[in-house]
Amino acid sequence: MAEETKAATEQVKAEAEDVKAKAEDVKAKAAEDETKEAKSVKEEAAKVEKKAKETVKKATDAASKTEKEGEGIVKKIINKVKKFFN
What we know:
Residues 1-69 are annotated as: Disordered. The protein is mostly helical. It has one domain. It is 98% helix and 0% strand. The chain is built from 1 helix and no strands.
């Protein structure tokens, strides 16, 4: 009887170790999946940030161009007014 109890105890210990190992595998897999997802989110954020920077640059360039064109128009008007009064 003692040997049967000992054998049953050893079997339960072995099964517990197996369950523990499986739990560790699941935990590791979850951590890996979480890392992959975080990396994916980080990559997507980098793409969005790059696109935003490009859009800001385009808008800044367009505003600068418009400003320069406006300055040119103002200078032309001033020159015409000067010519008119001279």
